[in-house]
Amino acid sequence: MRMGERKSRASGSDSRRVSRCRICRDRNLTRVIDLKRTPLANSFLSKPNDPEKWFPLEVLYCNSCGLLQLSEVVNPNLMFKEYPYRSSSSNSMLQHFRELAQSLSSEFITSSKQLVVEVGSNDGTLLSALKERGVRVLGVDPAANLARLANARGVETLPTFFDSDTADRIRDERGKAQVIVANNVLAHVDDVHEFMRGVSSLLEADGILSVEVPYAGNLNQNVEYDTVYHEHLSYFSVHPLLRLFSDFDIRLERVARLDVHGGSIRVTGRKTNKKFVSNPFVEFEKRCGLNRLETYQRLSDRIEYQMQDLRETLESLKSEGHEIVGYGAPAKSTTLLNACKIGAETLDYVIDTTPEKIGKFTPGTHIPIFRTERFQKEQPPYCLMLAWNYEKEILLKERQYTGQFIVPIPYARVLSRNSSS
Ligand code: TYD
Fold first, then answer.
1. Tens digits of per-residue pLDDT, 164-192?
2. What is the per-residue pLDDT for 418?
3. Ligand 1 centre from 65 Cα, in Å?
4. pTM of the full structure
5. 1-73+321-421 maps to CATH 3.40.50.720
6. Within 13 A of 123's CA, how many CA atoms are on the CB side?
7. pLDDT attached to residue 86
8. Rounded to the nearest 5 degrees, what angle is found at the Cα of 375, between the Cα atoms of 374 and 378?
9. pLDDT at 420
10. How many CA atoms lie within 13 A of 115 on its CB side?
11. What kind of architecture, by CATH, is found in domain 87-288?
12. pLDDT, position 34
C-alpha cells in the first residue's frame, strides 16, 4: 500500500452515515432529496444476476454553509479502484480539455521547469495536451486501469488517492507545483480538508488551483437529479467553496460557468496569505436562492414531477407497442433508470462507446449494453438519450437516425424527427 492511500481509505465497512457538514463541520443538516436506494453508478455487471450493493441516495443541505451533500459516504475503494469512465469518451470533453490546456499553459506557465499536477487525471487527456505544449506534468489517479492507460500514452501517473502524504511525496521528489488541476474530483472527496492540506503543501507560493465541479445552480435550475449518485458526495455552489479555499489560504480569483457535465463551474484560486472573504458570484447565488433550504425542498417536488412525467411518456409509447432503447450508459443513467424504475421491460438495450461498458448490464436495472453500431443498424423508433448532456454532439453524430430521441432533462421531450437531421 502506498503512503498516500492510507488516510484516504474509509474503514473496512462499505459505507458510513454523515453527521456533520463536510466543509463547516456543523451538524444542522436537513434532508432535501430522497432518491431511495440505488446500486453504485459505475458498477456495470458482467452477468445480470451478479450480486450488487445498494445504498441510500439522499441529499442533505447544510443550514450553516449551504453545502449540498450525500447522507451516505460509500467506501471509495468500492468506486474508484477500477473506473470505466474515460475523459476521452466524447469529442466535447476532448475539445474542453484542449482549450483548458491552452489557457493554463499560456496564462500560468512561464518556464519549462514548472510542474502541473492533475488530481483525478483519468486517462491523461488534459495532461497529454499540456505535455504537447512542452509543460512538465504529473497525474494522480487511484484507478489502476486509467493510470495504466495514461502511463502507456506517456503521461506519468501515480495510481493512488490524493492526500497530504501523496502531496508531500510528490513535493519531495519533484518539487512544488505551479498549477494543481482538480477536474471532476473534488465532489468525489470525503475529507476535503485533508485534500486541501495536500494542495496547500504541494502548491508554490502564488501557484494556481484550478477546480471544476458540477454546479448546484444547474442541478437546481434544470432539475438534474440524475447527476446525484454515490460518487458525488458534494454538490457545490461558490459560497461553501469560498469558505473551504480561504481556510487553506487559497484566494478564489475567478469563477467561470461551463457547459460540461450538464453545467459546471471552474473556480480558479491562488495560494496567498492575504485574507479574502468574498466573491461577486456569491451575490448572484443569493439571488437564485442557492443559500436557502426552501429552494431545495421545492427542487425535491420538481424532481418527483419530472420523474413521473418521464415514466408516463415512456409507458404511453410502450403501450402503443413501440420499441425504445437508451443512448449512452453514463453514471447518471444508473440514477435515472433506478429512481424512475425504468428497466429491461421498457428499454430493449442501451448503447455506449466505452469498451469497458460494452457487453455488460446496467446496475440495478440489468439492461444489456451494446455497441453504437447496433442502434445505427436497427434504427429503433424511439431512443431515450441517457447521455443528455451531449445532446448537440449526439444529434450531430446521429443525424441519419430515422427514429425519435426522447431527452429526459430538464423535462421529458420527444424530439421531432427532423431535430436530429
Ligand atoms: P458522461 O455523461 O460524460 O459522464 P457520467 O458517467 O459522469 O454521467 O458519460 C457519457 C457516457 O455516454 C459515456 O459512457 C460515453 C457515452 N457516449 C456514447 O456512448 N456516445 C456518444 O456519442 C457520447 C457523446 C457519449
1. 999 999 999 999 999 999 999 999 999 99
2. 59
3. 32
4. 0.93
5. yes
6. 16
7. 86
8. 80
9. 47
10. 18
11. 3-Layer(aba) Sandwich (3.40)
12. 98
Which residues of the chain register pLDDT less than 50? 1-10, 420-421
Q: How many CA atoms are closer than 13 Å to the CA of 43, on its beta-carbon side?
A: 23
Would you give the distance in Å from CA 175 to the centre of its chain?
A: 29
Q: Is residue 29 left, alpha or beta, with left meaning phi > 0 and alpha meaning psi from -120 to 50? A: beta
Q: 381 with 403: CB under 8 angstroms?
A: yes
Using the mean position of ligand 1's atoms as its centre, give its distance from the Cα of residue 128 in Å: 21
* Residue ranges, CATH 3.40.50.150, the chain: 87-288
In testing the pocket of ligand 1, which one of 85, 224, 360, 396 has its CB within 8 Å of the most ligand atoms?
A: 85
> What per-residue confidence (pLDDT) applies to 310?
98
Q: Counting atoms of ligand 1 from 1, which one is nearest the CA of 90?
A: 24
Ranges of CATH 3.40.50.720 domains, the chain: 1-73+321-421
Tell me, in angstroms, the distance from the centre of ligand 1 to residue 354's CA: 8
Which pLDDT score is estimated for 127? Answer: 98
